[in-house]
Amino acid sequence: MDVGWCFFFLLVQSLLFLPSHTQSDSFTSVLVSQNGLDFVKNLLVNKAIASIIPLQIPRIEKSVRIPFLGGIDVVVSNLTIYELDVASSYVKLGETGVVIVASGTTCNLSMNWHYSYSTWLAPIEISDQGIASVQVEGMEIGLSLGLQSDEGGLKLSLSECGCHVNDISIELEGGASWFYQGMVNAFKDQIGASVESTIAKKLSEGVSDLDSFLQSLPKEIPVDDKAALNVTFTSDPILKDSSVTFEIDGLFTKRETNQDLKSFFRNSASSAICPGNSKMLGISVDEAVFNSAAALYYNAEFMQWIVDKIPEQTLLNTARWRFIIPQLYKKYPNQDMNLNISLSSPPLVKISEEYVGANVDADLVIDVLQADQVIPVACISLVIRGSGALRVMGNNLGGSVRLEDFSMSLKWSNIGNLHLHLLQPIVRTVIQTVFVPYANDHLEKGFPLPIIRGFTLENAEIICSNSEIAVCSDVAYLDSSQQLRSRLTLPRSTPWKSKLL
Ligand SMILES: *[C@@H]1O[C@H](CO)[C@@H](O)[C@H](O)[C@H]1NC(C)=O
Ligand SMILES: *[C@@H]1O[C@H](CO)[C@@H](O)[C@H](O)[C@H]1NC(C)=O
Ligand SMILES: *[C@@H]1O[C@H](CO)[C@@H](O)[C@H](O)[C@H]1NC(C)=O
Ligand SMILES: *[C@@H]1O[C@H](CO)[C@@H](O)[C@H](O)[C@H]1NC(C)=O
């Protein structure tokens, strides 16, 4: 079959299969657009060339019949491809996999030749040897790759691999001219076939290396010593609209334990990630991811603060509260106090087109410190509303919150009724100086987006939509051997929005 047709067939074959995508428990989707595929394809082509060269081709021994001389034994050895040049290549998607075709490929080989013969004319054996250069022109290389999820990992398989040499030219250095033509005729096809099979073999080894690499990708990305992101693949990659979408679990899990957080549901199946955007990569993160983080840290009891130092330290003495809560001063005159703030439920994150926000329910217990004793005297329930800004830093998604407003209600009191409106400024100060900086300290670093090591996001943009955010970005690739670029891009963050939850 003509090789062009052969690749066409590969394409059609992989395009014919119907979509088999079913929505699953995935909270983060990673879409690689055609631009992203081209980027990865170029990377792979360059990596493949670098790994192929220099490529040794097995020696060829042959008996060649030459007019008047009869049979002579020729050995071609040390056949080495030392240059390989891909004129053009493309990547196309079918339903079951990826097709990569490189055409107009040329390669240059060097080789040693040796011949020997004996005839009745000359009783001794006659031999000669030299070197030759070989040019392979118009080589077509095609790969058809299958991509599947396998036990939460990603499996790459080689469905077809073809390499076809169009034309070959051989130039001898030295040697007799009669030998030249015989040599070219006898070895052309065999060298071509050998180049084809050696490159195909090398490519299939390359694919299996890539497969091992993909299978060795971690199923969890550590966030800190307490939390990790579950980056298990939850379904086969979806190949559609010239893009590949990888569905991954994406939720926060407690490190090294199989703790069950409350279950999350994805509100809407992400339809199109970064529509109309020409960026290479789109990562959509459901608000459930943020809520799983909130639930995890809440369960880890990280969300409790004893406030015993504030900028206006006199506020933490009953004397200062004398006129605000007279009973407090009467009962515990001139005693130091602290405030015990604890969250009463995990913060709830809401994402919409206009804003990113969080609702936090907290209990604020007023403690009086008497001798060695901590005496809780009253408890105020707080509902704090914050709005957030998200930012991509390196490969992390981070952000910051600020206080929008809060409401208070008295939960219990041993010191009579409190005039909550009088407490408002003090509580606001505490939230602003303790709570918000604490939250921002943690949010600033953010958490890692599921990006394969070596790739870095460039010119990322964040787009909020109903219940999810999408990071639309280009990527760059840095080999571990390459120097790390010092340039750090800080993409624009989503603007502050004053709307509340
Ligand atoms: C084999 O080929 C390589 C590359 O052309 C060359 O450097 C090397 O000397 C050759 N070896 C022999 C034994 O001729
Ligand atoms: C390799 O072969 C191409 C033609 O196929 C030729 O143009 C090029 O100069 C050769 N390169 C070397 C280094 O010999
Ligand atoms: C990670 O996600 C997968 C798929 O949703 C799930 O089966 C697995 O239990 C999760 N792992 C942990 C440690 O939560
Ligand atoms: C802080 O208050 C919570 C109840 O809101 C309580 O369970 C916890 O023990 C208190 N912590 C301290 C150190 O007083």
How would you describe the overall organization of this protein?
This is Lipid-binding serum glycoprotein C-terminal domain-containing protein. Residues 1-24 form the signal peptide. GO terms for molecular function: lipopolysaccharide binding. Residues 275-475 form the Lipid-binding serum glycoprotein C-terminal domain. The protein is of the alpha+beta class. It folds into two domains: 53-215, Bactericidal permeability-increasing protein, domain 1 (Super Roll); 220-497, Bactericidal permeability-increasing protein, domain 2 (Super Roll). The chain has six helices and 24 strands. Strands 2, 3, 4, 5, 6, 7, 8 and 9 form an eight-stranded antiparallel β-sheet that branches. Strands 16, 17, 18, 19, 20, 21 and 22 form a seven-stranded antiparallel β-sheet that branches. The longest helix has 39 residues, at 177-215. The relative contact order is 0.11. Bound molecules: 2-acetamido-2-deoxy-beta-D-glucopyranose (4 copies). One 2-acetamido-2-deoxy-beta-D-glucopyranose binds at residues 78, 80, 110, 112.
Topology:
Blueprint: H1 3-16, E1 28-32, H2 34-52, E2 55-57, E3 60-66, E4 70-85, E5 88-93, E6 97-117, E7 126-150, E8 153-164, E9 167-173, H3 177-215, E10 220-222, E11 227-230, E12 238-240, E13 243-248, E14 252-254, E15 281-286, H4 287-299, E16 304-307, H5 326-331, E17 336-343, E18 348-351, E19 356-370, E20 373-393, E21 396-413, H6 420-445, E22 447-448, E23 455-465, E24 468-477
Antiparallel strand pairs: 1-13, 1-15, 2-4, 3-4, 4-6, 5-6, 6-7, 7-8, 7-9, 10-11, 11-14, 12-13, 15-24, 16-17, 17-19, 18-19, 19-20, 20-21, 21-22, 23-24
Bound molecules: 2-acetamido-2-deoxy-beta-D-glucopyranose (4 copies).
